[in-house]
Amino acid sequence: MLTLEWESEGLQTVGIVVIIFASLKLLHLLGLIDFSEDTVEDEMEMATVRHRPEALELLEAQSKFTKKELQILYRGFKNECPSGVVNEETFKEIYSQFFPQGDSTTYAHFLFNAFDTDHNGSVSFEDFVMGLSILLRGTVQEKLNWAFNLYDINKDGYITKEEMLDIMKAIYDMMGKCTYPVLKEDAPRQHVETFFQEMDKNKDGVVTIDEFIESCQK
């Protein structure tokens, strides 16, 4: 059973931990983290997909993955997603397998939107690689920037109490019966109020990225 200390002051990091942990499972379910010693083709096979990924060299320069890792990632991505893109329903299906004891639909929606950087309703191989590069190998600053983007649902540069509450409720719904002790119904809102007391330094009712990063680093 996955156990979390929900009453601790560090709960604001739970979202980040869940993102990283669930992303690893996402890779596993897509067949993308079996970095075996099998021989991989020197060039990506792109002719059979409708979406063409950017040049391998460009992705290698932009991400924290090696050329061989990118080749293996793309091979698995293409096998699981022949169209070359992942839609939101795929995200929801994967997370429902990872968290069968809860309802992960809303969290998967928020996470999909965070990966879908150009907001076109699909996650391309490039989107996926760049997001995973940050989550798995990015600096603390990069991970926190990415997490802020997740919490900033409407992408206006601020996190409101309503946005944080939506994310928290989604996380609680996803964890389902795996929380200990059992959460009270008003626990998400109480935690959001606690977070804002710590994060909203100038008490203007919203959290900026600077306030978010400073609070999480502490």
Automatic annotation (TrEMBL):
Q: Tell me what topology the record assigns in the membrane.
A: Peripheral membrane protein
Q: Which SMART domains match?
A: EFh (SM00054)
Q: Which Gene3D superfamilies match?
A: EF-hand
Q: Name one GO cellular component term.
A: voltage-gated potassium channel complex
Q: Where is the signal peptide?
A: none
Q: Which UniProt keywords apply?
A: Calcium, Cell membrane, Cytoplasm, Ion channel, Ion transport, Membrane, Metal-binding, Peroxisome, Phosphoprotein, Potassium, Potassium channel, Potassium transport, Repeat, Transmembrane, Transmembrane helix, Transport, Voltage-gated channel
The record's section on PROSITE patterns has:
EF_HAND_1, EF_HAND_2
Q: Name one GO biological process term.
A: regulation of potassium ion transmembrane transport
- Cell compartment(s), UniProt: Cell membrane; Cytoplasm; Peroxisome
Q: Which Pfam families match?
A: EF-hand_7 (PF13499), EF-hand_8 (PF13833)
GO terms (molecular function) for this protein are:
calcium ion binding; potassium channel activity; potassium channel regulator activity
Domain called EF-hand: residue spans = 103-138, 139-174, 187-218
Primary localization class, coarse: membrane
Family label: Belongs to the recoverin family.
Under which name does UniProt file this protein?
Answer: Kv channel-interacting protein 4
> Which species is this UniProt entry from?
Phainopepla nitens (Phainopepla)
Task: Quote the gene name from the UniProt entry.
Answer: Kcnip4
